[in-house]
Amino acid sequence: MSSTTGTGTAHRPQIAKADGSAVRVLVVDDENSLTDLLKMALRYEGWEVRTASDGLGAVRTAREFRPDAIVLDIMLPDIDGLEVLQRVRADGTETPVLFLTAKDSLDDRIAGLTAGGDDYVTKPFSLEEVVARLRGLIRRSTLTLAQAKDPVLRVGDLSLDEDSYEVERDGASIELTATEFELLRFLMRNPRRVLSKAQILDRVWNYDFGGKESVVELYISYLRKKIDAGRDPMIHTVRGAGYMLKAAG
């Protein structure tokens, strides 16, 4: 996501290559709105992202960019995703590939995977699912985790798994919406740090509400009902400054 606001560790990539450089991901889809959303989500992970809107462009970009993972739509306006993959593989690369497709039959799934793809997501899908699948593919590839980071964030008795998107407090599972999850993740990546409403808007929503920061207050209230209800509070308001999450007690 946007990096206009200094937020310490929130900008540090969770996964990086052995030399410490950012993971590179190529996103291929002819729906510009979809590629824009995926680019935003993947950049939030600290990854470098390139996009292509057709198959031939994808092959060219793959040769120039040398991505560490590819998100590839099967249905493209010129050559299809399976042909793109065959050409990329012919260049001698074993880059892991996550297929996107509107098709949902077993035959299509088998065709994609036997063509050399590594995983498969059917449209419509959630951005969280795509990110989680990619993180899994990258972890299983030849890349090295930066500082061997655990995908589970922990603050006190609260835990959040960035791979499985599971949240628990004191062993009890907590169901969150996608936005609530992103808000909690941002708070947990910055424990005991006061985060302003502007910082939260920038990192969680990635656009300006025109000063209508009440949306942050609303989602903080939603989180409190799920995280703090009946327990010692972890989410604290710092008047005139913002919000902070810290272990209870």
The CATH C-level class name of the largest domain: Alpha Beta
What general outline do the C-alpha atoms trace? elongated
Quantity of strands, as a count: 11
Instruction: Summarize the amount of helix as a percent range.
Output: 25-40%
Mean of all residue-level pLDDT scores: 81
When the domains are counted, the total is 2
CATH topology of the largest domain: Rossmann fold
SSE topology string? EHEHEHEHEHEEEEHHHEE
Write out the strand line-up for the largest beta sheet, numbering strands in chain order.
2-1-3-4-5
Q: Kindly, what is the distance between the CA atoms of the first and last residues, rounded to a whole number of angstroms?
A: 33 Å
Indicate the structural class: alpha/beta
Low-confidence blocks of residues: 1-13, 143-148, 207-211
Largest sheet features: 5 strands, parallel
Keywords: DNA-binding, Phosphoprotein, Transcription, Transcription regulation, Two-component regulatory system
Modified residues (4-aspartylphosphate): 73
Domain Response regulatory: 24-138
InterPro entries: CheY-like_superfamily (IPR011006), OmpR/PhoB-type_DNA-bd (IPR001867), Sig_transdc_resp-reg_C-effctor (IPR016032), Sig_transdc_resp-reg_receiver (IPR001789), WalR-like (IPR039420), WH-like_DNA-bd_sf (IPR036388)
